[in-house]
């Protein structure tokens, strides 16, 4: 059954009651724009309650926190509906809608929109290089002053409204910030501001899963269906053979960006898992590596079944609290107790505007954590110390910590996305030195984490708009060159050659849920035409950058975007933004 027919049918099953008391943002993505075959009057209104609540919440985070902190009033949020509560129509939890999440790459960046080109007030926000309002606990040392100045300069250059940088060297942490957490309300970013760390959350979920492996509650190579007998995938053989190792290493082959919003109830992951019976695959099980948000969400559901509690509670009790993390949360009502950054995209006038989008709770294990640079580095210390907590308590076995970063899954990916995959971690080789880390992107926010274990150095950058990728490249080159004498590999660029004579073998159409990509030849040059379901095509010229590797440039973004072509078991594939797309007739 064609995707355009089968997946909207899935959406229709999940429709629940409308909520008339909230207004929809005009520029918010519409489900019926992604799946036009099912567009009908009133259909979108039935599923938008959860999104509206999230949007209202995230829009108010910095404003409410600062206002009520000064007045001494508590901040409250409409209560989360428990899974046991029933609505008037008999459904459980909060009403739902369908989304297609871009995971580690924001929708704006993938689509080639001007969302990355946030301009105007962003540069002005960094004009004053004075220390932020909350002082660095390490003191205003020369190192702190230097990196605060460099962060402010580079963030202004790349039109990033606000950013925080954390550096761990040995056992010392330096935290600095620049710019604005919220450009609409002129809320200053500080070293302790909370940011959406996006897919860095996946490493937290993987760590939690490995704690259960240590306890003997689960096994990496036992079929997941043993723990989740209700699991059903379209392919019965994949259902029988799928393991936790496949999920953590992104080798399940499940299309990773089919992400229904199943509400804010405690049963949201259970309801999510029930929908996987309609989610297609993009490659054979274990035969390739394709970035998979769904795999980490399914890991979260497995964790729930083995711990008897929600993923949020299990993460809080088994990771966040034992590590003493006081600025890390999964739910927006908990974030309200802190100053939090809002994502920014470019408005019609080119100036940054707040985008209040919040990751649905049902996608939580793949990317919902909000944290500060200090808490992220405290989490990294657990892995640098081979599983020992801050008080010397063993939270993770040394063997489990080692396997997470040393297990290797060959990928068709490029340096930005990880040259190989561990269990949760992405891995790089920088001039012979092993590096692990992860990136994260939500709407208008980007995060970057790199760990150089042989020097006991870790660096985390959290941002809220602009050309964050260019900021990452420029800043991390300086930081790691200065502190360790090594630098990240530069992004791919055109090699100046013409497409090889055999490049025609990759001409054709490639598809995953929500996007169709076509490689075309015209006048001796290759072009990529990308069409999101219900959208208009974007076209980019492809420039050779290596064997079976091409690059193209998105509007408003400095660095080139890579596309890798490869063949597996006689089938042609492309890998774009860490996702594998098979060729279709």
TrEMBL record:
Source organism, top-level taxon: Bacteria
A Pfam family of this chain: Beta-lactamase
Stated name of the protein: Beta-lactamase-related domain-containing protein
PANTHER family recorded: BETA-LACTAMASE-RELATED, D-ALANYL-D-ALANINE-CARBOXYPEPTIDASE/ENDOPEPTIDASE AMPH
Family matches, as SUPFAM superfamilies: beta-lactamase/transpeptidase-like
Region Disordered: start-end pairs: 1-97, 125-144
Compositional bias per record (Basic and acidic residues), positions renumbered to this chain: 38-48
Residues annotated as domain Beta-lactamase-related: 151-467
